[in-house]
């Protein structure tokens, strides 16, 4: 028959083992969470870079269109077509970048 201190020690060991298992589970969860956060950060960085590139291209195109309107007397249909092509290219670029991640 086990003494009272041996029972206490055995119960204490079982509780410590349970606690150790729960800590291991929490450690795995926090590691997975850290990986997910890093992946999302990488994706957001990529999207931000592509948005900056697209914004710069749109700004440059807008400057060219403005110049053409004021100095070249270009037909409005050509300007509309140019703007549509630029937006189509920007859409395709963003779609490609989002699908590649």
UniProtKB/TrEMBL annotation:
<dbReference type="GO" id="GO:0012505">
    <property type="term" value="C:endomembrane system"/>
</dbReference>
<keyword id="KW-0812">Transmembrane</keyword>
<dbReference type="InterPro" id="IPR000727">
    <property type="entry name" value="T_SNARE_dom"/>
</dbReference>
<keyword id="KW-0813">Transport</keyword>
<keyword id="KW-0472">Membrane</keyword>
<dbReference type="GO" id="GO:0016020">
    <property type="term" value="C:membrane"/>
</dbReference>
<feature type="transmembrane region" description="Helical">
    <location>
        <begin position="76"/>
        <end position="98"/>
    </location>
</feature>
<keyword id="KW-1133">Transmembrane helix</keyword>
<protein>
    <submittedName>
        <fullName>SNARE domain</fullName>
    </submittedName>
</protein>
<feature type="domain" description="T-SNARE coiled-coil homology">
    <location>
        <begin position="6"/>
        <end position="68"/>
    </location>
</feature>
<dbReference type="GO" id="GO:0005737">
    <property type="term" value="C:cytoplasm"/>
</dbReference>
């Amino acid at each position: 028959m086990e003494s009272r201190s041996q029972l206490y020690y055995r119960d204490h060991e079982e509780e410590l083992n349970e606690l150790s298992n729960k800590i291991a589970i929490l450690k795995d969860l926090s590691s997975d969470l850290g990986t997910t956060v890093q992946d999302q950060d990488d994706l957001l960085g990529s999207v931000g870079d592509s948005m900056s590139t697209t914004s710069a291209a749109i700004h440059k195109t807008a400057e060219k269109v403005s110049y053409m309107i004021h100095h070249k007397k270009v037909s409005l249909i050509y300007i509309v077509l140019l703007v549509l092509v630029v937006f189509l290219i920007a859409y395709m670029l963003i779609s490609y970048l989002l699908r590649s991640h």
